Amino acid sequence: MWQYFDHEFEYEDAYRDFYSPWAGHKYFSYDLVRNIRPKIIVELGTYRGTSFFSFCQAVKDACHDANLYAVDTWQGDEHGGFYDEDVYTDVIKIKEKYYADLKINLLRKRFDEAVDEFDNHSIDLLHIDGLHTYEAVKHDFEKWLPKVKPDGIILLHDIYINKEDFGVHQFWEELKGQYKTVEFHHSYGLGVLFKDGTHYQSFIDSQKEWQIRYSYIAEDKKNEKIHKSLTSSERLLTKHERQISGLRQIISEQDDKLAVRDGNIARLNDVLSERDGQIATLNGAVSACDRHIAVLNEGLSERDGNIARLNDVLSERDGEVAALNRTVSVCDEQIAVLNEALSGRIADLNRAATERDGALALIDLMKGSTSWRLTRPMRFLARLVRYGLIDDDRRNLSHRFHYRYHQLPLPVSVKNFIGIFRQKKMAVQMEKAGAFAIHARNALRYVGRRDFDGLKKRIHFYQADQFIQKLAVLGPPKRWGVIATPHTLFVAHLVASRLRAHNFEVDIMTNPPAGFPHDMYVVICAQMLDVLPPGEKRIVYQMEQSVSSRWFTDAYIKILECSLAVLEYSLVNVAFMAGKGVMYPHVHYLPVGAGTGYMDHLPPVEKTCDVLFYGDANSSPRRREMLNVLRRHFNVRMCSEIFDMDMVNEIRRARTVINLHYYKNALLEMPRIQECLSLGVPVITETAQDQADYPDLTGAVIFFEEGNEQAMIEAVRRALHHPVEPETIRQAVAAGAGRFAFMFDRFLVAMGFLPASKLADDVLPLPQGASHIVLSMPETIARRRLFEANCPQCFAVFDGIRLRPGWVGCGLSYAKLAGYALSQGMHRLTILEDDALLPEDFEGKMRIIHAYLDAKEGQWDVFAGLITTLHSEVKVLGAEMFQGMLFVTIDKMTGMVCNVYSEKVLRILASWDPDHRDDQTNTIDKYLERQTDLRIVVTLPFLAGHREEVHSTLWGFQNTQYRELIAESERTLQESAGAFL
Questions:
Q1: What is the structure's pLDDT at 398?
Q2: Staple 871 to which of 69, 364, 840, 892, CB 3.0 to 4.6 Å?
């Protein structure tokens, strides 16, 4: 039996809805809920809440246990109109004020996004009141029908509107032929649909009565409320009229008082005029005082500024003095150790000299023998050959000992053999003593010019070199552990994938293992772990941003210093940590890349979110403010504290991901960006100071000006309306993955964990067809930044290969670049080193040089912009003027600072042997110098110079040591070329 209820709607105190299109049906909806007592009520399209809060009122009055869901974007649509955030705010206020104890869920989503949150056959009562086109209402009905219980009821509003593109009436006519229905004609019409007809028979008997009763109730209640409103307004008007009459009486009395006051004011004005004259005179005096005070204040401000600057200078100087004192103390200790060791070595040299004198006496006896005289012609011939190949007066002391005693002719008697054996043993001792003496002499030179910082760097250079060489002897670690925090698991995946590509065993873990049984560990975000592997088997991947120093504590710096090596993802951080003493060669640059095939095994997912933000928004005020702005315009999903596959699935369901900096002027959050791209999802992010370091992101990532909220909104709107092409993302991922693979392999080679042959020529991270290359070490960031400030536009930077000793890594870089150029079909390659000092008109001169080389095609092999050391036997083959520049052709060269290589020389460079470890003959410049049929073109004066303010990455000394060699080479060539002009 249908029961009617007499009730009041509490929400009407805050929201008068009697003109609402739905207001005429709320009495039926109230009675419907009271009669059928549904457990789950869902409404699609709530607006201000007339229908929804009638459901809530019925549940509240009945003390009924039910879950109520309102699904709406609260942004409006084409039919109902669009509106601002105030509508949603008012709905929340009504919910919290009148229905706070009910189980109400406001789902601010599109209908299709919310449908998956409900199980099939779970909804008792469904109200559909969204967009009213035929297609929209049909789509909503069919999408949500499976969610309604078999005996459930569905309400559709506006079934009697037949205008423009409103199509509910049309779809309702179709439904009436398929289901049991009841309908109301008033208030634009309401359709009641019984899914399987279970309740229909018990309700149909009341249909006519419903249509009459609820129609009249709607009008009566509406008229009653309007009448009450009018009556209240009339009473209020009468009250106001009485108040106005009283006010008029008061105004009349006040007018009389004002007349008296006006007379007083006139008299006072006369007095004031006199006072104004006095005040003007005083103001003049005050102004003069103010000007004088301003002059004094300006002088005081200037003085305060000078004092503050002087205090800063004093503080800085005090710090420098303290640091220098500490350095001097350390150097004094090291000098004492060196002096003690030098004394011992000198004693060893004296003993070796005594033994040498005895050996020379034996040699004199041997020279008097018959066999010596008979073999004299053969020895003479051998000397000619030997001296022709190895005549170099600039060799160091240890090499001369090696040459003299290790190349002795084979003896012909046992007695002489014993003598020669003793000589060779003595030679080895003298060679070691000589090498030590040279190192000690160099150290004393630093001390002599009080360059203690240079001495410290040189000692560190040789210590690191010896340690890495010892490590390489032990062989590469076979079993690796990658320890990562949950939010860096993507980076752990990149590291592990690359190690597995080289057949290493790898385990990824988020907690350190007991006892650390692996051979080597890569620790990501080490500062967040309580227990770390021992330093000798720990490589730290540093992921924090130096724009905030909160993580860079003394303890964290100590962790980095005591680790076997440090991987750093940002060049900005490389520069920052160098200031903290964590620098080359301890640091290896490893930018975070992308992962090809990352999560490709997962099935496709439906895009349910327009914009996703994941990360910490609460503790960053700038993030929180920008997200609040974004949420007023778009459907934004925010996620935090979820990781691994949960996070992967959230990203895959998003159409785009928004990335906002935690700090102002921050670096790009590369792990987050590269993971999204690897999953095929485009990224929108603020610009950053290191953006130029990631050219592979171009096109796949949409950048907007940092902190610009309007630019952010426009970027998101553009990304949603014109999505990034999947192919563009795929290319960016391939480029990022290739760069990471090369840079990680570069690190493994530098550590001796991977043979240099594993670095393939055709995968160098360079732009397609790049024929102008700058060879640079990113870890020596000061050199790179100095060069970048004046780098020619057409040059691409190549991160040089690192290998111990450094000259081998340099040679290997040239060999790989040459192999790359040949694989690209190039016939000419220009390479600059980042300590090249270029003239202001460099590009103009290079155009002339290339024009000259074109004119001399087939008559040159190398153009050398700088000759560091001119070979003593160099020959000048020709000299001529061309477009105002003097070109000289010679047959030998030593210098790689700024060169152009022909295809012939590229093949020679590509054949360089990194296993030939003789630094007197096989450094890459001496390797070219040894070639016998080269034609080298130079300009006079030399095209390029050598920066003297930077350190050599190969030998660890200041470039000033090249100055005299270069000047001498240029003078000698000038004199020799004069004969051709």
A1: 37
A2: 892
Contacts of 919 (CB under 8 A, 6+ apart): 805, 807
List Cα–Cα distances, 46 to 107, 363, 775, in angstroms. 10, 111, 64
- The tens digit of pLDDT for each residue in 9-39 reads 999 888 877 668 898 899 999 999 999 999 9
- Per DSSP bridges, beta strands 654-659 and 683-686 are parallel
Residue 235 has pLDDT above 90, yes or no: no
Nearest to 833 by CA among 764, 903, 773, 778: 773
| Predicted model pTM | 0.57
- Note the residue count of the chain: 981
Backbone φ and ψ for 72, nearest 5 degrees, come out as -165, 150
Q: Give the number of other CB atoms < 10 A from CB of residue 229.
A: 11
Query: CA 452 to CA 329: how far, in whole Å?
Result: 10
Respond yes or no on whether the N-terminal peptide bond of residue 591 is cis (omega within 30° of 0). no
pLDDT by residue (tens digit) across 331-356? 666 566 556 656 655 666 666 566 66
Contact predicate 414/344, CB 8 Å: no
522 backbone dihedrals φ, ψ, rounded to 5°: -105, 120
Task: Please state, in angstroms and rounded to a whole number, the distance separating the CA atoms of residues 78 and 174.
Answer: 24
Is residue 171 within 8 A of residue 134, CB to CB? The reply is yes
What is the distance between the terminal CA atoms of the chain, rounded to a whole angstrom?
122
Rg (CA), the chain: 43
Contact 557, 581 (CB under 8 A): yes
Sheet holding 520-524, edge to edge: 505-509, 479-483, 520-524, 538-542, 565-568, 587-589
Helices 489-501, 726-750: inter-axial angle, 10-degree rounding: 60
Residue at 898: amino acid letter: C
CA 162 to chain centre: 56
Buried b (16+ CB within 10 A) or exposed e, 294-303: eeeeeeeeee
* DSSP state letter for 714: H
Amino acid identity at 413: S
Residue 900 backbone dihedrals phi, psi, to 5 degrees: -120, 125
Strand partners, 862: 901, 936
pLDDT at 528 over 50: yes
Tokens of 921: 């003959």
Model confidence pLDDT, tens digit, residues 645-680:
999 999 999 999 999 999 889 999 999 999 999 999
Backbone phi, then psi, for 538, in 5-degree steps? -125, 125
User: Element (H or E) spanning 855, and its range?
Assistant: helix 842-855
Task: Name residue 62's amino acid.
Answer: A
**CA atoms lying within 13 Å on the CB side of residue 473:** 5
